[in-house]
Amino acid sequence: MQSRVKWVENMTFVGQSSSGHSIVLDGNGGDKAPSPMELVLMAAGGCSSVDVVSGLQDLQQQITGCEVQISAERREQAPRLFTAATLHFVVTGHDLNDDKVSQVVADSLEKYCSVCLMLGKGVELSHSYEIVMA
């Protein structure tokens, strides 16, 4: 896997993945685009959401929606590393089994999500979920 990031102007950068997709990054706190640290949170949310959706589909759950809300705390002093993050999943569907949703969410953060597993080495990660019946 490879990527590259190119400076555009001021603190604006464009990142390009080896698959050919591009994203704008803003080093000035996200005025023009997500900051690199915001993208880390989005990566954790995206990676874990893939696990949750595919896991519930594999368990024959009638999932119609999945959203993860991520909140994080950072150190005050530089480097401003994340110290804690919570991923709250809102899973929507028909006749969803609470035990299955609970297990799939936990498994994602504890076993499968590469981004969360890397973050978990230095960040206190927690998770929660709610089920919304469609």
From TrEMBL:
Q: Which SUPFAM superfamilies match?
A: OsmC-like
What name does this protein carry? OsmC family protein
| A Pfam family matched in the record | OsmC
The source organism is: Photobacterium aquimaris
* InterPro entries according to UniProt: KH_dom-like_a/b, OsmC/Ohr_fam, OsmC/Ohrsf
